[in-house]
Amino acid sequence: MKRICFGTLFNLMYQGRRQGVKNGPLCDAVFASFGADISYHDSSLVGHLKNGHDDVPGYLKDAVRDCD
Predict the structure, then answer these.
(1) Nearest in space to 39 (alpha carbons), one of 27, 47, 51
(2) What pTM was estimated for this model as a whole?
(3) What's the CA gap between 59 and 68, in Å, rounded?
(4) Residue 68 has pLDDT above 80, yes or no
């Protein structure tokens, strides 16, 4: 199985978004699908995730590992 980083996946999703959809709400929706919330992080987290500067938070990794 091939893997891609979250930043690459997020960029692909961002390029395919509807007009007017911003980075923050799109990232919130991705994390919410796994039951995680990033709203309490600083506003730069989404941009850092998108360009690959920061790694996905550990609690989201745990949520993904435990999902069906």
Answers:
(1) 27
(2) 0.71
(3) 16
(4) no
